[in-house]
Amino acid sequence: xxxxxxxxxxxxxxxxTFSLIFAKPWHEVNKFNLDGQTCPVPVRENVPCQVVCxxxxxxxxxxxxxxxxxxxxxxxxxxxxxxxxxxxxxLCACKGGFLGGNPLNLPSNGVASLVPCMTVTNAAGxxxxxxxxxxxxxxxxxxxxxxxxxxxxxxxxxxxxAEGPANAxxxxxxxxxxxxxxxxxxxxxxxxxxxxxxxxIAAVAGSHAVYKFIHNRGFKDPISMPTRSRSFKSxxxxxxxxxxxxxxxxxxxxxxQFIGYRPDFFGAITxxxxxxxSVVLVMLIFVLILDYYAVFSGLTFRDEAMVxxxxxxxxxxxxxxxxxxxxxxxxxxxxxxxxLTYFGRRCPLANATMVKIKKRIEPPVYLAGMGWIAVRVxxxxxxxxxxxxxxxxxHVVPVYNNELLDNTGQGRYIEFECVRxxxxxxxxxxxxxxxxxxxxxxxxxxxxxxxxxxxxxLRRDRIGPNAIMFPADGWFSALSKEFSSFFxxxxxxxxxxxxxxxxxxxxxxxxxxxxxxxxxxxxxxxRAQRRVLKMVAFNGTSRVRRxxxxxxxxxxxxxxxxxxxxxxxxxxxxxxxxxxxxxxSGSVVVDESSLTGEAxxxxxxxxKNENVPYSREYTKINSLHAGTRPLQAQSDIxxxxxLGIVTHxxxxxxxxxxxxxxxxxxxxxxxxxxxxxxxxxxLIFWGIIMLILSIVMLGFGDIDSWFYGMFTISQVLSPLLxxxxxxxxxxxxxxxSKKGILCVDLARITxxxxxxxxxxxxxxxxxxxxxxFLGVRSVLPGPVFAKAxxxxxxxxxxxxxxxxxxxxxxxxxxxxxxxxxxHSVTYVGDQYVGNFVDVEMFRATGGTLEVSxxxxxxxTTLVHPSQPGSGTLEIIKRHEFxxxxxxxxxxxxxxxxxxxxxxxxxxxxxxKALSNKSSIPADYDSIAERHAxxxxxxxxxxxxxxxxxxxxxxxxxxxPREALEQVGSPRVIGLLLFRNELKxxxxxxxxxxxxxxxxxxxVTGDNVGTAVHIAKRCGMIRETGLGxxxxxxxxxxxxxxxVVSWKNTEDGSIVTYGELYNTLELMxxxxxxxxxxxxxxxxxxxxxTDGIMRKILLDTRIFARMTPEDKVRCVRLHMExxxxxxxxxxxxxxxxxKAAHAGLALSEAEASVVSHFSARDxxxxxxxxxxxxxxxxxxxxxxxxxxLIMYGEVLAFMGLIQYYFTVNMxxxxxxxxDGATVPLSWALTMALPAMKLxxxxxxxxxxxYETVLSVVGQIFxxxxxxxCAIVMLFNQSWFRCNEFDDRGYDVxxxxxxxxxxxxxxxxxxxxxxxxxxxxxxxxxxxFRRGVLRNWIFLCSYGAIFVILSFIILAExxxxxxxxxxxxxxxxxxxxxxxxxxxxxxxEYYNPRGHNVMPVSFRWQLWALCVxxxxxxxxxxxxVILGPVRTWAMKRWPLKRQKVRL
Length: 1445
Fold this sequence. Notes:
Elements: H1 2-21, E1 43-48, E2 52-54, E3 73-74, E4 80-81, E5 115-116, E6 119-122, E7 125-128, E8 131-135, H2 146-156, E9 172-173, H3 192-217, E10 227-230, E11 252-262, H4 265-292, H5 311-334, H6 339-342, E12 345-346, E13 354-360, H7 372-388, E14 392-398, E15 400-401, E16 412-416, E17 419-424, E18 429-432, H8 441-446, H9 453-463, H10 475-482, H11 486-500, H12 504-536, E19 541-546, E20 549-554, E21 563-565, E22 580-583, E23 587-591, H13 593-596, E24 602-605, E25 623-624, E26 629-634, E27 643-648, H14 654-663, H15 671-698, H16 704-716, H17 721-738, E28 741-743, H18 747-752, E29 757-760, H19 762-766, E30 772-780, E31 784-785, H20 798-801, H21 813-821, E32 826-828, E33 831-833, H22 836-845, E34 848-853, E35 859-864, E36 873-882, E37 887-894, E38 900-907, H23 908-914, H24 924-933, E39 937-946, H25 953-958, H26 961-965, E40 971-979, H27 986-995, E41 999-1003, H28 1008-1018, E42 1031-1038, E43 1043-1048, E44 1054-1055, H29 1057-1068, E45 1075-1080, H30 1081-1089, H31 1093-1096, E46 1100-1104, H32 1108-1121, E47 1124-1128, H33 1134-1139, ...
Parallel strand pairs: 29-41, 29-47, 41-46, 42-45, 45-46, 47-48, 48-49
Antiparallel strand pairs: 1-8, 2-5, 2-9, 3-4, 6-7, 10-11, 11-12, 11-13, 13-14, 15-16, 16-17, 17-18, 19-20, 19-21, 21-27, 22-25, 22-27, 23-24, 23-26, 28-49, 30-31, 30-40, 32-33, 34-35, 35-36, 36-37, 37-38, 38-39, 39-40, 42-43, 43-44
């Protein structure tokens, strides 16, 4: 990279030095011909003569004598009319007097008696109808050149004297004295308004600054810094159900600073004046633009066509106002967040009416190995942010007053990011409003009486209504935010120059493109915002207990602590809950699919009336959440409602947290974005250099050089650059949408193109949703595992099939009773609902459930076995499954025997810890792990405890959980085996991802053995190319001290970390066997704490028993090493989906909205499609970026060549060049993705070797061809002595500098080069299909290529004349045999009257253009994309993070 930069700098300084030294032509124009002989005197053909003036029309020479016809009079203004206007101005009047003084013998009535002879109108006004060929004429005829007048006088046979006519009675050629243009001084009235405006702005702003400094000097305001956090406390070791509490990111420490302000009269006046000044400055620029086109002609007090008299004065004023306006808007934008408070009055928070909130900008996760450029940019950015105090985001919010809370000292509040903050006079700070419930389960039951109306009102005013409040943008505010960015300011100011300098045609086109693009982005933004608003909107009423009475209230009036009735969806006014609730009575079957994507409803139970601390994380089985739908509500007592206490409302609900994650996402770092921060300043710097070179080429003293240079800057840093970078993302998003993959963040598409690590959840992602119940491994007295008494399943391998019992009737009675009763299953209609493991288990029993009422009115669940003669079982008490405990229990009463038993069911590790050691078989762990690992089973243990004889049902109901379960008393009676089958396309998709250069890992909450088995079956752990099976080591934390041990799954041996590390080193050196690691969640956290996990991260394939918080931590750890994607079902892995560089949720649930992508078909094939489109999008984005850079560089270098000769392209050719850029940029993005993923990834480094070499190489090639074209032109005999002589031409009228050979040759080749750049960058690579498949690009490029070729090769024609190439004036074309050519310009700004090139040269020029294309394509295909690149990569390999696939 350093060598590339050195080469670029050397080339730049060499070219700069050359330009400065040779700023003048290396030879005299039209001095010698190709043979070295002196050029003949130039002859300008068909030059119109000046007006011939006479005192009597009859004295006009015959060639110019007017003939108006019958009924018409010839007027002094040279027109024929029936009646001549009295105010007609004579064409023979000279405002500055006649050359040499007044004509002799002038009549007494002076100039008014002179009449012009016959005239015609052309671009210069009315001139004589006589045209002559002038020898030696090279200057502007308006200044009265002698050769022109002598030729005209000779043709008319009249006397000519340079000092004026000898006798006014004879015909004479009008010779006016040259006008001395009035240069306005800075004291002219035209500048008075500007002085007044500038002085007023400075005076008002300065006075306010002094006033504010004096006011704030002694002011000290206490700044409150509240910290609110949300964190995970779950220690779940299961992955069998979705945890809504853990849907969102890891612990966040959000620090805010509050500063109070009040309105200030002087500040309000100043702010109004500032806004008015901004409008006036823009209006002033528009006035100057209109004055350029003489719109105010006749309205000026000097009776001039322009307010500023001439273009020199006007341009000086425009440049001055333009710079002032640019700086003005940049200052306003840089201080945009402070503007409102800057003009306010600082005050204590207690008196503030608005509060400025400073929020610390959360640093993104930086990717290792982004290169030295990104690292330095990051450091510089951090230093600049710290120095300028922009390391915080600034927000201004109003302060509201609540009269009800005024007497509590907490009547003032603000709302920020959906959360209400209450001002507390005691702490003199704003604190997040809270209203706690509980704090214990028994307290919840005690609060079942509900709130009073006054208490509810106090809580509502403290916390806010039950709504997620965020300021939705309207069209005006959204457009204001969109069009006030720095780049839009740059675009606006550049377009002002285009409009001013007679390039308004293309200025209008680009304005339309920019405005339409901006409106499109605003439309997408508002549509997404409306989608969020629709998701958070709750309507309807809810039945609430207030003042000991049941009332129906709007859901917005509900507050934490309210007791509400849980109604079924069919009975509720709104089908979804609007609050988070904890049940205190009854049970509810709830559909959580809108949040989690889980299709199976779950059962929620009331919390027990026990003195147990209430915790949001530990009451998942007792909690209902906003956005879920109650399907069935079952009361404990007939006739009584199912009750719940509201715990959270509005933004504090889990759904509210989801919405806040969507509205306020965390930042992410990407090398593409980091390099953009360097590219834009570099382009601006390079544009300034080109501006200086342009001024040098055109001459320091010419004010118009500034405009030429600013055009160069606008070309180098194209205003279309940001829009084009987004087009590829939009196209990819549209194609993904057609494939069922929805994108909510377009920028993540480009980021996904660099994914190197793809993490997958297991259940529901790699495997199917449901579990198949396989059978039981019963434990017999001994204790030993029983062998199967029956067969009939092929789900297990033959050896294991002999050991597993599948026939329910053959199970031991206690095992049968446990399967029938130890679950959370209920039914809605004819459908069983509950945890899907429990439902599958209960279905295997063939039993039926019956919910009945006991004598006391309490609900009782009865279970009727399917076996004839089996007694009915009564479930008298349940302790639901809590992930923190990892097991559940049920108290069962056998009605046929009266026996009471407690059944426990949960993870085999947890049940082992709870059970009597004497009931656990010696091979318990190995059998469970073998079924989990080798067979891929989901293993659950079942235990039972017999309650002491004499225990009654009522006593059992009243016993606490600890007394019922009595740790150490239950007996293990069996292992329950389930299997989660792979999806059909999982293995193929993972194979394609690995072949596409992605490392695939598993991050799951399931058992590590099961995870290893699934990884082997799907090919995530696979044998080497030589057929060697990898060694799999499982890391788990053993013992209370948490020491991580490593177990070899092949032979069961235990190795130390040192031994494992040596094995890994041998593998990395290619001298040892392939090793794959698997770790549990506990081991992961211990290794992370010890600093070991980062060292072995990329050798670890499986992360098992991971809590949702662990998943987030694991993903973020991978993000430090490589661009990481996460794929899950959008449930308990939603936090990891949100944290990853790219998250793909295989779900359409609302919780999946936090993910950047969501797929409808739930197939991980979507991951492959995402990467295909993302890599294509990134590749075409880089190609579009390079194309627009080439567009600017080609025009810049071509401009330097043209400025050297003081020529320019025609307006039409400029419009074609710029107009072709828009469709070609768009067509480039329409490339289709490659059919298969390549093992490589596209580059995202805008300043990387590949990108820089591609652009610099093409620039070098194009400059060589431009030089070759100029050399080829100067070697033409017909061209020498016909070179363009710029003396006498006005460079402000740049379109008149196009009618020459130099402009035609350099312009047509430059346009070809811009078009060729698109063709070169359109070449298909590993990431997109070939250009022949991109029909849109082929049609666009082909049409432009044909037009340009026709312009060059065809004989003079209408099209060529539009572009002022190979054309001429009608008289000149008549000589070449092209009579009456439509479109031929009346006047051609060339001494010869044409720039028609010989046919042979036109073919040579076309061949040069085609050769330029061939060289560019060969360079791109062989050097950038082909064998040269491959050789260079092997010769000088880049230092990148090595990731084992």
